[in-house]
């Protein structure tokens, strides 16, 4: 169990919280930040100068470093926002309970 020494917080769960446990935001969306970091398809860039302008992912078969966004249960409040980027070096395996994926569907 992780102990928050500099961020006194207790939501009743030692690591991740169950999906949909808290009230939705103003748009009706649940669990948008703070539970786990979100694995995305983008390759790691130093900046956005080579990113596609149509909003698609920057994907490359030779990509060695990927991006995970936002903060998870183990992170401090500074990283708990969806725009925060972490570099993830690894294949398809995720480091424990710190990284997840977001399922979405078109409405």
Question: Would you kindly provide a written description of the structure presented here, covering whatever features stand out?
Answer:
This protein has strands at about 35-45, 65-70, 85-90, 100. With about 110 residues, the protein is mainly beta. It has one domain: Alpha-Beta Complex (paralog of FGE (formylglycine-generating enzyme)). The chain has a 4-stranded mixed β-sheet with strand order 3-2-1-4, with no helix packed on it. The radius of gyration is 15 Å and the shape is globular. The mean pLDDT is about 80.
Q: Fill in the CATH topology.
A: paralog of FGE (formylglycine-generating enzyme)
Overall number of domains = 1
- Provide the structure class: mainly beta
Strand content: 15-25%
Mean pLDDT metric: 78
CATH superfamily membership: paralog of FGE (formylglycine-generating enzyme)
Which value, in Å, is the CA radius of gyration? 15 Å
Low-confidence stretches: none
Distance between the termini: 38 Å
Helical proportion?
Answer: under 10%
Biggest sheet: strand arrangement: 3-2-1-4
Q: Could you describe the largest sheet, including whether it forms a barrel?
A: 4 strands, mixed
Task: Give the ordered list of helices and strands.
Answer: EEEE
The total count of strands amounts to 4
Sum up the overall morphology in one term: globular
Q: Helical stretch count?
A: 0
Give me the CATH architecture, please.
Alpha-Beta Complex
The CATH class turns out to be Alpha Beta
């Amino acid at each position: 169990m992780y102990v928050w020494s500099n961020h006194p917080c207790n939501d009743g769960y030692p690591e991740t919280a169950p999906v949909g446990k808290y009230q939705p935001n103003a748009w009706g969306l649940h669990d948008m930040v703070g539970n786990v970091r979100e694995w995305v398809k983008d390759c790691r860039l130093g900046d956005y100068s080579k990113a596609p302008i149509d909003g698609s992912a920057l994907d490359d078969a030779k990509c060695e470093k990927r991006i995970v966004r936002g903060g998870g249960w183990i992170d401090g409040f500074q990283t708990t926002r969806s725009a925060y980027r972490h570099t993830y070096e690894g294949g398809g395996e995720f480091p424990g309970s710190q990284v997840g994926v977001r399922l979405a569907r078109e409405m």
